[in-house]
């Protein structure tokens, strides 16, 4: 958990903004940007290991070559950007547990504030609460800490030629080959695939969490480590709520072919998780 006080966190954030906007192509910096709960910190750790570059996490970065991770919208002077994109429905589920239940990486303040603004009768009943929580994320939360929502993040980075975009589900399916294009782009060198696969193995969900992917621990920052978990939590009301705010981007990114998913989806009655990843483009 980040032990810095709020003033230091804000000062560090200002320095990071200055660095990523003005010095990313000079030092250079390797920038990993994501909407929260999309796997960005995991990716940053792997890049740090493969590129042998520091990853200043929860500490003030030095003005030197390093991996920088944050939640940045597109800016014209950013260079060496890797944008990690996750299915927004999975983001919602992951954010629900991260913001409403304490874990080793969040803070009691975040949980207290989110619960105060979302006074659900039973916080463990995620399926019942999701429609209201989706509305909260897209209309209230985006005006507080993040200042933008998942939809606005996608709009910001969609089809930007100066950034490399990778899907979280693709990273889970084939980590090394998903990272390869970005590493070759920023280094100008051919990737050592054997070494990159070893890095991916070192930072796998199983290694980091000591659990198999799909085994849930709602008290852990590394909660589940799969794509498609939204299928276990969303009912029709949640589908309709998400579609209202961000349905176009699900289709634009290839997570869905059309809006048929809303009427076709039924929350699973089984306690077991569906195997495999989302079949997205």
- Integer average pLDDT: 90
Main sheet makeup = 4 strands, parallel
User: How much β-strand is present in the residues?
Assistant: 5-15%
Rg for CA atoms = 19 Å
> From N to C, what is the helix and strand string?
HEHEEHHHHEHHHHHHH
What is the CA–CA distance across the termini? 35 Å
Structural category is alpha/beta
Number of helices: 13
What report would you give on this structure?
The structure is a single chain. This protein folds into two domains: 6-86 and 161-202, Rossmann fold, CATH 3.40.50.300; 88-150 and 214-264, no CATH class. The chain has helices at residues 6-22, 40-51, 88-100, 108-117, 126-139, 150-157, 168-173, 175-187, 193-202, 205-209, 230-233, 236-252, 260-264; strands at 29-34, 66-70, 81-85, 163-167. The protein has a four-stranded parallel beta sheet with strand order 2-1-3-4, sandwiched between helices. The protein is an alpha/beta fold. The longest helix has 17 residues, at 6-22. Helix 5 packs across helix 12 (236-252) and helix 8 packs across helix 9. It has 13 helices and four strands. The radius of gyration is 19 Å and the shape is globular.
């Amino acid at each position: 958990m980040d032990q810095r006080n709020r003033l230091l966190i804000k000062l560090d954030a200002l320095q990071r903004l200055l660095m990523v906007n003005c010095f990313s192509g000079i030092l250079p910096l390797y920038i990993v940007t994501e909407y929260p709960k999309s796997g960005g910190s995991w990716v940053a750790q792997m890049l740090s290991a493969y590129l042998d570059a520091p990853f200043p996490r929860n500490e003030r970065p030095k003005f030197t070559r390093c991996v920088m991770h944050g939640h940045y919208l597109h800016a014209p002077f950013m260079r060496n950007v890797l944008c990690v994109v996750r299915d927004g429905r999975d983001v919602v589920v992951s954010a629900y547990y991260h913001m409403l239940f304490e874990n080793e990486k969040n803070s009691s303040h975040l949980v207290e504030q989110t619960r105060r603004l979302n006074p659900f009768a039973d916080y463990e009943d995620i399926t019942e609460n999701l429609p209201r929580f989706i509305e909260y994320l897209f209309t209230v939360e985006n005006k507080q800490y993040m200042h933008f929502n998942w939809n606005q993040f996608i709009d910001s980075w969609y089809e930007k030629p100066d950034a490399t975009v990778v899907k979280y589900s693709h990273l889970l399916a084939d980590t090394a080959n998903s990272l390869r294009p970005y590493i070759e782009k920023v280094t100008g060198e051919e990737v050592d695939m054997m070494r990159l696969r070893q890095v991916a193995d070192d930072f796998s969900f199983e290694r980091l969490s000591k659990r198999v992917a799909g085994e849930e621990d709602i008290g852990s920052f590394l909660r589940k480590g799969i794509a498609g978990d939204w299928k276990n939590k969303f009912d029709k009301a949640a589908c309709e709520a998400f579609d209202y705010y961000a349905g176009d981007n699900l289709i634009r990114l290839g997570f869905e072919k059309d809006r048929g998913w809303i009427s076709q989806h039924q929350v699973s009655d089984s306690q077991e998780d569906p195997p495999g990843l989302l079949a997205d483009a």
